[in-house]
Design goal:
The protein is of the alpha/beta class and 441 residues long. It has helices spanning 6-11, 37-51, 56-62, 67-79, 100-112, 123-133, 142-148, 156-168, 182-189, 227-231, 272-275, 293-306, 335-338, 341-346, 358-371, 378-389, 400-415, 423-436; strands at 13-17, 21-24, 53-55, 83-89, 93-98, 121-122, 172-175, 197-200, 202-205, 208-211, 238-241, 245-248, 260-262, 267-269, 280-283, 308-312, 318-322, 326-331, 349-352. Helices cover 41% and strands 18% of the residues.
Length: 441
Amino acid sequence: MSMVSTELKSGLLAALLADDGFRPEEPKTLEDTQLSQTLVESIICKLLLNIGSMSGRKTAEHICLPFGVVEGILTSMRTRQIITHCGSAPLNDYTYTLTDQGRTRAQAYMHSCAYFGPAPVSLEDYITSVEAQSVRNETPKEEDLKRAFDGLSIEPGLFDRLGPAVNSGAGLFLYGAPGNGKTTLAKRITACYGQEIWIPRTIVEDGQYIKLFDAAFHEAVDQHENSIIKADNFDHRWVKIQRPTVVVGGELTMDSLEIRFDPINNICEAPLQMKSNCGSLLIDDFGRQRMQPQELLNRWIVPLENRVDYLALPNGKKIQVPFEQLIIFSTNLEPSDLTDDAFLRRIPYKIEVEDASPEEFQNLFQIFSKQFGCRCDEDAVNHLIEKHYKPNNRPLRRCQPRDLLSQIRNYCVYKGFPMEMRPEYFDLVVGSYFTVVAGND
């Protein structure tokens, strides 16, 4: 499939604004949407079949197209006796309902595909948006990393190793012992890239609807809070979101990496890597998925090299979509034990997250004591280290200050005591903590 033409890029999709970057412009005509009138009519028919009746403006609002575009389509449908007026509506509008002929047509549309949400965006327009908003267009600096990791205890040496990897957008392995914050680091990395992005709610290609927006992974931004958005109209088929961080762990399967088809409603859902475009995709606990690591690596070896992925539609057609995200593999295992040199070459950064130093361990207690609403007692922490860590050669893991303070809080709540960091409290909770959960990340 060829990339979108220069003319198309400069048509529907405005490129760059100084404050807002990429932003989809409101379509003025049906041609601007890159959709056929038949497609829009089918959505309107299915909407009225399910709702019963609706004003023209409410119909336009529901399918996320301007009333000026929808009004002409409604007029055409009424002329052809697919819909009819069943009342007046404010602002020189009418309430519409299906005729018998329209109901028969709508039922046929529903049988073919049950989708009647926001009008979709063409695959070409989606490709344009990803190219304009890719993380590889961003160049985070040291101050961006410090802002993204604010509130975390990060050693300067780790910053210096993470910075070039984040700046490259080329992907990385975070590896090391459990409990040292690899997952937390990975989740913060996306914030290094700054601004929000626009994604289509739904994409259409070759008559197939692919749902992209997913509230489980995409955090919508209130567009009305932005003064620029108030002043300028935008295409409501798109939604503005925080740059996504898609996190998957042991539940990841090969099916999650392909377009998933609902045979009952004949609607598709985008795969995880597509939902993470222009953000980060974290494969947590890599090596512990139900699939073999080599299966996943073989599936992605070409996309990582070429930055495009090939997906199959339910009708058998292959489509080419961008593979534009920062891939992060977080693992407790050595990367070289999981894969071969060919794949490691495509993930150029391998960063070990080491155990905390005694100074950082103390600093972590300072940070978490504020969250738990108590004073940090350095003597109590020193007692903890000298009595429970050094004699047993226990490593200082970054998750432990938070976990131990959590257990002390629970004990104090149970006893009705004020929350305090006291040596005897550490003595009390250490036994159960290290016996039960030592080694968990």
